[in-house]
Amino acid sequence: MSKSPFYGIAHVAKKQYFCSVIRIAVIGLPHSGKSSLSNALQNLADKGHYGVQFVEVHNPDELHGHAFDLVLQVVDSTRLEESLMLTPHIIDEQEKIVIAIGRYDLLLKTDHSLNIPKLEQLIGVPTCRVSVRLNYGLPNCLQILLEAAQRPVSKAHPIYHLRDQEDEDTYRAYVHGILTQTLTHAKDDKHQTRLERIDKVLTNPWLGFPIMMLILYFVFWCTFTLGAYPQGWIEHGIDGLSEWLRGVMADTWWASLFIDGVLKGVGAVLAFLPNIIILFFFISIMEDSGYMAREAYIMDTIMHRIGLHGRSFIPMLMGFGCNVPAIMAAKDIQNPKDRVLTMLMVPFMSCSARLPVYMLFVGAFFAKYKALVMISLYAIGICLSILFALVMKRTKWFRQDEDDTVNELPEFKLPKLRVALAHIWEKVADYLQKICTVILWASIIIWALEYFPNQSLNDLENSYLAAIGQFVSPVLEPLGFDWKMSVCLLTGLPAKEAIVSTLAILYGGDITATGFTPLTAFSFMLFVLLYFPCVATIFTLRREAGRRWAWFMVGHSLILAWFVAFIVYQVGLLL
Fold it and tell me: How far apart are CA 51 and CA 11, in angstroms?
């Protein structure tokens, strides 16, 4: 019976490490494929019953103080220079290292080639090439690892002496020199795939930003234009059902609760479900294709020039979906000051819960400029987050000299419909869950406060709801808000979608026939944009950053929302 190609050395390894497992740390840049490679190698080792344990680590600092027998550095073949820049830092912590050139098939697709033996000679580190997707090179990689675990470290090559150099430019010059001798470039771009040519344009320093703005404009245009038809069908269906129920049900309090409270309040939010589906379809396409990370890269190039942290953009981009997981994602930022500052910046990103509010007012008052107004709201949030960060960076809590950039990009690929549908279903399920819980209870409470104590919806001025609104309205009157608008902002505390259901209950179906004007509508949307997203966001920030920063976020967001809405409204009156 034939034996595996690495039977000999593996047999020795099993015998030598019978009572001691070989622990191999796997490290590499984000999105380099280290997780899939470590899992594939672990499965291969387990099938052969070899005493090997692969442990994934995120940065060289995690190697310090841990008993690893050697390190497997996964080098992304599409980002060779940046990946190899990590090698000297790894050697600072663990001298016994093996390099695996991962995703090698992607390099070959571009008609580039890498001289592995010469690369191994120049670096002085055992090197192999692998592709998990093609199941290529895995047995050879495992054999090299087992051999390296038993060999003493050779320090005859310059890479081991770079630890004495603290200048990052020295590292980069050395790595660049190695790749100059080992990497053969394609003669021109004709060998690049169509996706690679597109990717090159999307990340172009001059074209990337305007293309990104055009894509966002197209997304919002489709969200409104395509979503308007099913949205209208749902609204007409709810109106027709309400009228039919009024004709067949007796005029009682529970009939009013169901028709004017539950049906009207929940239905107002449900009508925006088609728009939510369309928007998140495009978002899922951008995420799965890798374009969302390229948006972060493009924005980082701009933001980095004014001193902001590069890696903060991924959580901030996630904030456009939901602020809660975005704040949790910021935990991956190593620097504690940048981590907390990023968490405080996330609420400036306009989450999907605010979207129904925007759609309602933009459709009613800015019908000719829907996409432009929507983009302006998102842009205002981003710009104010930049100003906020610039101010906070100059305080004693966040002042620092450290710097970072976003330089790792996942593979740009065709999105998969299955992934898009799964992402849409996740968002739709979350939206429907809110409708059936928070929005439903908010609609019932608002109806009850409006219906009592006079047990009539025709005497709104003497209701409990009016008393609450008139109590807080003096604070918001300078912004152009009456007591009904003030109540709507209060109901938005548990969830911003509740604002839409409250508007439907208080104003009926047509908000253009109320005290709202285009100016007050825009001022109202700005306030919704800037005051803290929801109670869940506050609790998440309290858990991740502490009670002090949670209360700080509540306080500064309310103050900022008031001042921005005040300035816009008062200046608008003058114009």
Answer: 10
